Amino acid sequence: QLRVHGDDTLMLRSHKYKGSRLTVPRDPEDERFVISFDLDSPESCADAQRFFGEFGFVVFRNVFSSEQCQRTLDEMWGFLESDEVHAGRAARAPAFERASLARVSRADPATWGSPWTGLVDEGIVGSGALFLPQLLRNRQTPNVFRAYELLVRPSPAGLLVNQDRFGLFRPTRGIEEYAPEVAALDPAALARESSLARPDRATVANVHLDMNPWAFLSADEDTRSRAVLDALRYRHAHDWIEENNHIGSILSLRGDGAVSHIQALVNLLDNEEDDGGFVLVPGFHHDLVEWAHATETSLRAENGDRVKFVVLPPESGVPAAAVRITARAGSMVLWDQRTAHGSRPNASKRPRAAVFFKLFEREKIGAERAPCQGLC
User: Fold this and answer.
1) Which residues neighbour 231 within 8 Å (Cβ) at sequence distance 6 or greater?
2) What is the rounded end-to-end Cα distance, in angstroms, of the chain?
3) CA distance 313 to 351
4) Predicted confidence band of residue 375 (pLDDT cuts 50, 70, 90)
5) Torsion-angle region of residue 69: left (phi > 0), alpha (psi -120 to 50) or beta?
6) If you average pLDDT over every residue of the chain, what do you get?
7) 3-state helix, strand, coil in the chain (%, to 5)
8) Which ranges constitute the DSSP H helices of 239-338?
9) Could you identify which of 73, 80, 228, 338 might form a hypothetical disulfide with 104, taking C-beta atoms 3.0 to 4.6 angstroms apart as the criterion?
10) Is 181 exposed, middle or buried (0-12, 13-18, 19+ CB in 10 A)?
11) Which residues, at least 6 apart from 371, have a Cβ–Cβ distance to it below 8 Å?
12) Quick one: 320 exposed, middle or buried, by C-beta within 10 A (0-12, 13-18, 19+)?
């Protein structure tokens, strides 16, 4: 029985989210991780479909092999160690530090400090989509398409994969690993220093929606989204990111119950609770419409209908309902885009590393965009 919950009270009267606080089951073989499913087992796949419908997310294990994870990690570190990244970091450093700025080295965590690269607060490596050999090979992984096809049930025209970048949450604990001289401290002092190690490397905790929930309720949103997407010409790396957050309106939902807009990530390392990373509000996709109506005079007034990345503040009550979704290396986490999600900062000695995905139904790529994506 997969339906396990505590307080099943839905949001009432107030715009503060009280939610259906579903309890996410743990992996029976390893309590460090949430429950996951096996793409090679028909019975497990059927359970995964039901779980996804109820919770708004699902984890499939062994989508990447351990060798594929390692090749991807090697490519990420190779990018971070590159002349391009070093030049960008040096340009952001104070003038008096530029000459002495150490190049990033995967073997030396002391070089993982500021100025960093990419979207630093979000732990994303790369400002726009990165077109690197292993990243491109990853996007042709059969298991990635199998997972999506199980949930999306696309038309015979099939699916197309997006382009994206790496996620890296640098360790923020264990100062002795970064400053060997601290080892000379007495144990009590070392413990105090370790608990405060490298807070400057922490990402910003957040819960958000990669869509506009109020525009989603408007029939005009389908026309607006199509206009934005059809205008993309992919001349800039960020165009590949822009396309991810336009999901149309509630009227575009499929009548067969399948979900067209699903986001995903694959962990490159085991991701435990304290390592930081993905959080999600289980079941939020069921409450989205009611919640959006309830917040029209508050959060909608602050954000408007055009913003496609909506951060949900603590006072909304939504972040308090978020839980960490922990998973093994090679596991793929997929979530309904209508589900509030985000991340928590790393609070461990271990890095968190991942790559991101979204697949689209090919038939929904308009004739104006297709040539620009190289599809014609």
Assistant:
1) 368
2) 47
3) 27
4) low
5) alpha
6) 88
7) 40, 15, 45
8) 239-242, 284-294, 299-303
9) 80
10) exposed
11) none
12) middle
Gyration radius of the chain's alpha carbons: 21
Q: What's the sign of the alpha-carbon dihedral 163, 304, 299, 259? A: negative
Amino acid at 56: G
Task: Tell me the average pLDDT across 148-158.
Answer: 88
Q: CA separation (Å) from 186 to 182, 189, 191, 349? A: 9, 5, 9, 20
Note whether 214 and 302 are within 8 A (CB).
no
C-alpha torsion sign, points 168, 173, 177, 181 = positive
Q: Tokens 């991810």 label which residue?
A: 244
CA distances from 22 to 19, 117, 272, 276, 283 (A): 9, 37, 20, 21, 7
- Residues 6+ away with beta carbon under 8 Å from 198: 113, 170, 171, 172, 173, 175, 178
pLDDT digits (tens, 9 = 90+) for 173-201: 875 454 444 444 555 544 554 555 788 89
Give the containing element (helix H, strand E) for 53: helix 42-55
Burial of 100 (0-12, 13-18, 19+ CB in 10 A): exposed
Confidence of residue 4 (pLDDT cuts 50, 70, 90): very low
* Residue 132 tokens, joined: 């690197």
Cβ-proximal residues to 137 (8 Å cutoff; 6+ apart), any chain: none
| Residue whose token pair is 């029976």 | 28
Residue with tokens 């822009």: 242
- DSSP secondary structure of 91-142: HHS-GGGTTTPPPPBTTBGGGS-SS--SBGGGTEE-SS----HHHHHHTT-H
Q: How many residues does the chain have?
A: 376
User: Phi and psi (nearest 5°) for 33?
Assistant: -120, 155
Quickly tell me which residue has 């490519």 as its tokens. 75
Q: Give the whole-angstrom CA distance, residue 92 versus residue 116.
A: 9
